[in-house]
Amino acid sequence: MKHIPYGRQYITDEDINMVVETLKSDYLTQGPKIVEFENNFSNYLGCNYTCMVNNGTAALHLCAMALDIKEGDKVITTPITFVASANGFRYMGAEVTFCDIDPNTHLMDLEKLKTILMDSPKGTYKAVIPVAFAGYPIDEEELHKLSKQYGFSIVIDACHAIGGSFIDSNGEKQMVGNCKYSDLTVFSFHPVKHIATGEGGAITTNRKDLFDKLLLYRTHGITKDSEKFVNNNDGGWYYEMQELGYNYRITEIQAALGISQLKRIDWSIERRNIIANKYDLAFKNINIQTPYRAKNIVHAFHLYIIEVDSDLRKPLYDYLKENGIFSQVLYIPVHTMPYYQKLGWKNGDFPISEEYYKHCLALPMYPSLTDEEQNYVIEKVINFINNK
Ligand SMILES: *Cc1c(COP(=O)(O)O)cnc(C)c1O
To answer: Structural domain of residue 113, as residue ranges?
Structure first.
């Protein structure tokens, strides 16, 4: 029986050797591999700083902390995301508001965002957290303009979008996560994501003030930097806990795995785009909506999402599963989750997101998907649609 998931990690012998070497080294955590992974990550994206952490959710929580989000502060995210995009700010007591999506890109609709922002005095919203959903880059330049006008910080949830890029109005290529137009950008290294370290996450920024806070909060609010001490430095052992932080550190073992995989990221994005183009072509003449993309972007294709008639979506999901193909529905709109409904959100609040949810289905998309496997997926999808 075949088993073709919608996403999976790709681990080579070189990755395994890197991990084994690290296991034999002096450090299992808080050592040189984390710093190396951070430096390589910053170099790849073209940002000043990277703070590696134990997962993407912790990364989002740390962003909220670094931005000094307080009980009752208003922030805005999208309903079509993993719950963590909203939860990271809820941990700080933020009041999370949602902004509906664009029906083509499925990203936060910046026109709708503008309408929300215009309705309130400048400074009402402390942060906007758009999601580069499926790997499609945000129009960060436009968002940046809005942030200046309305006074909010930008945290891009790019857990799907490492390797994505866009061409800005100056004709320059901007990597998602270079933070030219954002304050902070967040990544995840969960096994379904592009880089898989088991669990893992990263925050990138160009702001030294935010980076210093991230480092402090990542490790209990403790500093060993004598220049920052508030009290007397008693000697070599001395450290200070200055804020209430967490243990959100990644291990050396995970960092080694990440360093090794980061070397293949360009190949991985290229391979994902080849797979996407092949799906596009195969589904051209059948009744399936394939993913939209504009000319000025490189899609990172964490997910390849088709949209089908709402009454066919569940039967197609079940049919594929019977044939060993494990497609997935991403996402159930966050505002329809019982927890968020307890906070006052209702079905009907974000009609475009809710409509999208009825049609969407993510097909297998990962660099090690073979041609033969993809042909099999295509054959099954077309077979199903044509017999309806
Ligand atoms: C995976 C993911 C996260 C959370 O990352 P974890 O590493 O699993 O904690 C957050 N946001 C989005 C959009 C994600 O896909």
So the answer is: 13-262
